[in-house]
Amino acid sequence: MDDTLQLDIVAPDKLLVREQVDQVQIPGKRGELGILPGHAPLITELTIGEIRYMQGGTLHYLSVAWGFAEVLPNRVIILADTAERAEEIDIKRAQEAKARAEAELKQAGADTHYEALQYALRRAEVRLQVAAHAGHVAPAH
Description:
The protein is an alpha+beta fold. It has two helices and eight strands, in the order E-E-E-E-E-E-E-E-H-H. Strands 1, 2, 3, 4, 5, 6, 7 and 8 form an eight-stranded mixed β-sheet that branches.
């Protein structure tokens, strides 16, 4: 058995990752999944969260919102609705999105789409958390 696996992360507008990696952690819709070489095959839906992968002793981070992952014994393919590397995150935009979602949740009325606002808030928080891993900002709370 090989001690690495191929990781491909694709968003609609670009290929973000195509690397041999030691391990991957992905935010499955039903919980966090840790993937090592030789993992049993599966397909899972992704939620809003962090993708983390280890490559040669270095941990890399991406934010992801929705999509699918196919896991094979020697390969992980992630088709994300949106995904960003930590260093690509526009921190000011993420902070503004977080503040906007928080304000809208505070002023929510009967016609408010709470789920959409909660998703927007969670996505902004995850983007800030991932950016913090690259040393850009303090983690979101």
